[in-house]
UniProtKB/TrEMBL annotation:
GO biological process, one term: signal transduction
Entry-linked SUPFAM superfamilies: Aspartate receptor, ligand-binding domain
Keywords: Cell membrane, Membrane, Transducer, Transmembrane, Transmembrane helix
InterPro entries given in the database record: 4HB_MCP_dom_sf, Chemotax_Me-accpt_rcpt, Tar_rcpt_lig-bd
Domain Chemotaxis methyl-accepting receptor Tar-related ligand-binding: 44-178
Keyword Transmembrane applies: yes
Protein's recorded name: Methyl-accepting chemotaxis protein
Any one GO cellular component localisation term in the record: plasma membrane
Example GO molecular function: transmembrane signaling receptor activity
Provenance organism: Enterobacter hormaechei
Length: 189
């Protein structure tokens, strides 16, 4: 009879051990899934920020190009209709850039470093946007000398520096998120 109790106790302990292992395995799988989902959400947010920022930059470059063409045509005494068409494109691009940048700033920063980068990005955006807006105003008022001496190149370079820093931070974040997801997956498997 004692033998039977030992066998049934052993079987019962093996059953409990299997249950504990199953619960532990499910817990690790859930943890990996939760971390993977969180990383995916953060990467998606970062990519949306990257997209909005890239669109902002592209539209500002479009405005700058239109202004440069309009300035060249003004200096060469082309018909005002041609210049006005380019000015409409430039003003429209500036409005679009402002809307794109507002979409970028509306998205929440993922880390403290991103918050600091976002503040720096806002400063450089405001300077470049302001320079382009002043350039457009000077050109509309036929102040060609002020238009030509505007420090747009320096403000564009500052914005590009902030833009590149932002891109590098997002790339590093995506690489970290991928490594974290792989680690969680290995732990759960």
């Amino acid at each position: 009879m004692l033998n039977r109790i030992r066998i049934s106790t052993t079987l019962f302990l093996i059953l409990i051990l299997c249950g504990v292992l199953q619960v532990g395995s499910n817990g690790l799988s859930f943890w990996a899934f939760r971390d993977g989902y969180q990383n995916l959400q953060e990467v998606e947010t970062s990519n949306q920020q990257r997209s909005a920022l890239a669109q902002t930059r592209a539209v500002l470059l479009q405005a700058s190009t239109a202004l440069n063409k309009a300035g060249t045509l003004t200096a060469l005494s082309y018909p005002p209709e041609d210049i006005k068409a380019l000015m409409v494109v430039a003003r429209s691009s500036l409005k679009q850039a402002d809307a794109q940048f507002k979409a970028f700033t509306a998205q929440e920063a993922v880390s403290e470093k991103e918050k600091a980068l976002k503040v720096a990005m806002k400063k450089t955006f405001d300077v470049w946007y302001g320079d382009l807006d002043h350039q457009a105003t000077w050109l509309e008022n036929n102040q060609l000398s002020d238009f030509l001496t505007a420090p747009v190149q320096a403000s564009q370079a500052a914005f590009d520096g902030s833009f590149n820093a932002w891109q590098q931070d997002i790339n590093q974040f995506v690489a970290r998120a991928g490594a974290d997801s792989r680690t969680s997956y290995r732990m759960s498997g």
